[in-house]
């Protein structure tokens, strides 16, 4: 779908042993050509919490919008959009209403 629109999608590599995002390549993944950084705060599959603040800081350096999927984090940890450095976050609707 991205290619159909003339867009490219880049991924931050995951360390296969720790299942943690490898942030060493952020300069290659997030640059002045980047339009949006979309990242999940937490994984319900492996239980990790991503270092969204570091990723957001890099995105801000090049003026990129950051969207964070907080669906799997909200039921377990406090989430502060501003501390994450995100312009957008998507908590689960049903949990947010409770």
UniProtKB/TrEMBL annotation:
Boundaries of every Aminotransferase class V domain copy: 2-86
InterPro entries for this protein: Aminotrans_V_dom, PyrdxlP-dep_Trfase, PyrdxlP-dep_Trfase_major
Pfam family, one: Aminotran_5
SUPFAM superfamilies: PLP-dependent transferases (SSF53383)
Transmembrane segments annotated in the record for this chain: none
PANTHER family, sorted: CYSTEINE DESULFURASE
Name used for this protein in its record: Aminotransferase class V domain-containing protein
